[in-house]
Amino acid sequence: MAINKQNRDDVMRGLGANEQAILERIPILFLRKIAAGIVRAKMRLQFTGWLQYLLPIIFVLVFFVIAAIANLLDARLLAIPFLVLGTMIFLVAVFDLVTVKFRLRFPENLPERKDDLELFDLMRARRSCRSFQTRKMTDTDRNELMESVHAHMEEPQIGQSPVRFEYISAPLTVWPTVNATEFLVALTPKEYDRIAVIDVGRSLQKIVMDATRMGLGTCWIGPGADHVSIIKNLGDRFDPEKDHIICVCAVGYKSSYIPIFLRLFNAQFKRRLPLSELFFADTSFEQPLDLDTAPFNRFGRNYEICQWAPSSYNGQTTRCVANTEENGDVKSFDFYATTASRYYAPVALGIWCANWEMGCVTLDIHGHFAVLSAGERGVRDENTHPKLPRYEVSWVLDEKF
């Protein structure tokens, strides 16, 4: 059943970019409406702070109902497994409530630093932290983190619009992270500038990697952050006439007390697309890049750390095309976004830019970012290319090989 524009707008009204992107994959209008209703109910609950703990109860009720029906039908051998499973999930849910929601638990140790890891291993070791200890960062760790923020803010940006990060020490309303009380808020000018959004991803990723080396846990939060609570805590550091909130990053000490829902949630984001679906030799995105032959093998694990870069809901919305000279020398690596998203896709692309740039520095490969014309990218007639993937920015090599 085809979905016309009016029906699509009605179904999507009030939903964020991430939710819309997920629902657009459902081709049947009736099923899409049902899914949209579920998403809206989830959004109403997620900022209450209870959704993470209520979801397991749904499964408990389902298992108990199945067990009851089976018992009524004298199928006790079927009823017992469902009864046991439902009871186990219920006990785990109660444990989560006591230890995570109400914070009645044993103290946890501070994490160890990761100074001994080289960059590529550090990036692979980093995972989104969605459950934090109840303690604040030490003054030493907080000062070191803010030094990282200031250092990366002094570096040249890709664009011209100012990007800044504000620190908040307060329990913001966020989803699905629990017990986070310290955040970095990414701000750009209110007038939309896509390159500025890319700069947010690029700069914040460098800060995140510094925090990871310190042993801190971090979690990127985009549509899961309630802007009302953020603006309230920013106070006079936020001007509604001039500023726009792009995302926040929770930062602190990782906790071993993680709700069962978040454990399952995290498990869903360990998969990544193969490199053959991320790096290409042509702008039609049909020929995968041969990463094992010269000159592309010179970039080693750069491909891997981009493959494992974080993105909203693990969407992996970034693609890369190697732009070469006629003699085979590499001119640039051109980065594209696969969706028209105004925020989460360019942030994810900025994270790729940061990983690629830091990887090149480690490999002693020199280059810079630039927005190239179609001709400079070897595209003769851009009108013949599909609108998506959309070209964003290039890493231009300062040396040829």
Report on this model:
- Strand 5, helix 11 (302-307) and strand 6 (318-324) form a beta-alpha-beta unit.
- The protein has a five-stranded mixed β-sheet, covered by helices on one side. The protein has a four-stranded antiparallel β-sheet with strand order 1-2-4-3, with helices on both faces.
- It contains twelve helices and nine strands.
- It folds into three domains: 5-101, no CATH class; 119-261, NADH Oxidase (3-Layer(aba) Sandwich); 275-397, NADH Oxidase (3-Layer(aba) Sandwich), CATH 3.40.109.
- The longest helix has 26 residues, at 76-101.
- The chain has 401 residues and is α+β, with helices and mostly antiparallel strands.
- It is globular.
Average of pLDDT: 92
- Class of the largest domain, according to the CATH hierarchy? Alpha Beta
What's the CATH superfamily of the largest domain, by name? NADH Oxidase
Rg measurement, Å = 23 Å
> Low-confidence parts, pLDDT < 50 over ≥5 residues?
none
Name of the CATH architecture of the largest domain = 3-Layer(aba) Sandwich
Strand and helix layout:
Elements: H1 5-12, H2 17-23, H3 29-46, H4 51-72, H5 76-101, H6 119-125, H7 139-153, E1 164-169, E2 182-189, H8 194-214, E3 217-221, H9 227-234, E4 243-252, H10 260-267, E5 279-280, H11 302-307, E6 318-324, E7 330-337, H12 344-362, E8 367-370, E9 390-397
Parallel strand pairs: 5-6
Antiparallel strand pairs: 1-2, 2-4, 3-4, 6-7, 7-9, 8-9
